[in-house]
Design goal:
352 residues; six-stranded parallel sheet; three-stranded antiparallel sheet; alpha/beta
Length: 352
């Protein structure tokens, strides 16, 4: 790993005799100097060296930018991998893509999976004024492709992997192209129970806290006035899962969020609402189940029941797909490690 990012203006040149990499490299070390175009050099410099800092974080070598020359110092394998990343970033800039720290992360992840970064990052799912939504990881790209190619797609994984956000973006795109007549967003109001009656307002006001994340995603895609207009006309419906019972949903883009908090019976009820010309997206995180301990999760059960059924696909996300703050990824990884350590103890408790 690099010796720590410094602003480009303050970084010592690798030619500086006081810099460790100025010493003649050993057989295990390598230096590569990449000539950049003006546009690429400008994008790499970025705002407050953010992209350069991301490069040093993601690449296991030291990174120095002077003018149009990017110098990479480190082990031979690390430098060769870094050169490949820089070339991909250069191609993205040449195609008109703006670089950000997340772009570096996405390119590194794509190359590690032997995927084309451009194929992932340039697959724009939804564009509206300043909003541009595209996959940022290989699994996000697989998820987007799965939703396009299947009637029912399950997106299962930790918070921050873009499951709901991408689904809502694809729904907005389908509605704008008139591939569907309406968008239906639903969630189970799990924790309501007895406390629901103590909340002020009518039923929708009571369940609003449970549906708010879906409203937030909608407002990221459309102007508030447009969202309000669609809600008033029934073009967009945001409702608790209980409202789906007894209905057949035709020509709709239907998203069930937080599906880990459905019972197996609720999951079956939801899936059998599917009508002609509709798509269903089911998202959830099986590590964050809020149901009572004795209650099984419909999302856990359905993976066993429907695995292998035609036109139904399961896409599973991991910590590497978290696109929120880096700390979120570390938190997810820490909880996963803790669960692994606790697994034998939990099995022993159940057996007892």
């Amino acid at each position: 790993m690099g010796s720590g990012p410094r602003p480009a203006s303050a970084r010592r040149s690798p030619d500086d005799a006081t810099h460790p990499s100025a010493r003649p490299p050993t057989s295990a070390l390598m230096r590569s100097v990449v000539e950049l175009s003006n546009d690429v050099a400008t994008e790499l410099a970025g705002s407050q060296d953010a992209v350069l800092r991301a490069l040093e974080t993601e690449l296991d070598c030291d990174v120095f930018l002077r003018g149009n020359q990017l110098t990479l110092d480190g082990d031979e394998g690390a430098v060769q991998a870094a050169v490949a990343v820089v070339r991909e970033l250069s191609e993205l800039v040449d195609q008109g893509h703006e670089l950000a720290p997340g772009t570096v992360e996405a390119v590194v992840g794509a190359l590690s999976e032997h995927e084309s970064p451009a194929r992932i990052l340039e697959d724009v799912v939804w564009r509206h004024r300043a909003t541009r939504v595209a996959p940022k990881t290989v699994n996000q790209k697989r998820y987007v492709d799965s939703i396009r190619n299947n009637t029912i797609t399950f997106g299962i994984g930790p918070a921050g992997t873009g499951k709901t956000f991408l689904a809502v973006a694809l729904a907005a795109a389908a509605l704008s192209r008139r591939e569907v007549n309406r968008i239906i967003l639903t969630r189970p109001a799990v924790e309501a129970g007895e406390r629901l009656g103590f909340l002020p307002g009518d039923l929708m006001a009571k369940v609003d806290p449970y549906l708010r994340p879906l409203f937030d995603a909608l407002h990221d895609m459309l102007e508030p006035e447009k969202v309000a207009q669609h809600l008033e006309r029934g073009v967009i419906e945001v409702a608790p899962l209980a409202f789906m019972r007894g209905r057949t949903l035709n020509d709709s883009f239907i998203i069930l969020d937080e599906a880990q908090n459905t019972s197996p019976e609720q999951m079956k009820m939801f899936l059998t609402r599917l009508g002609f010309g509709s798509k269903m997206i089911v998202t959830g995180d099986v590590t964050q189940i809020d149901l009572p301990r004795e209650q099984g999760s419909g999302l856990v059960a359905v993976a066993e029941i429907l695995q292998g059924v035609d036109d139904v696909d399961f896409v599973r996300f991991g910590g590497e797909d978290v696109v929120r703050h880096k700390l979120v990824r570390q938190i997810v990884a820490a909880y996963d490690e803790h669960s692994q350590r606790m697994a034998p103890e939990l099995r022993a408790r159940k057996a007892g």
